[in-house]
Amino acid sequence: MSEAQHVYEVRARKDRRGVDLISDVLPFGRLRYGEQNAVSNAIGYAKFYSRSCGAVIRVFDEVGNVIETHEHAGAFKEW
Question: Can you give the pLDDT at residue 1?
Fold first, then answer.
């Protein structure tokens, strides 16, 4: 993993109303998703906003176990 990569966590909300996307690179630390496809929307957001440097996205279950890991290589190229 490169130092320039963003690290995101997708965790189920304790109130069972969707998921939280958590990262130090987010302005307020987390984003909440409550719709049916909340997990895929959170992953898509993380990939889109980390397109210049890449991202590692870990999806956790309700217990706290990692169930998926997505690695997204940034599209930024030096000239």
Answer: 46
| Whether the Cβ atoms of residue 19 and residue 27 lie closer than 8 Å to each other | no
Q: How does pLDDT run across 5-43, given as a tens digit for each residue?
A: 899 999 999 998 999 999 999 988 899 999 889 999 999
Q: What is the mean pLDDT of residues 56-73?
A: 93
Q: 1 lies in a domain?
A: no
φ/ψ bin of 18: left (φ > 0), alpha (ψ from -120 to 50), beta (otherwise): left
55 in a structural domain: yes
Closest Cα partner for 5 from 66, 58, 71?
71
Element (H, E) at 45: helix 38-49
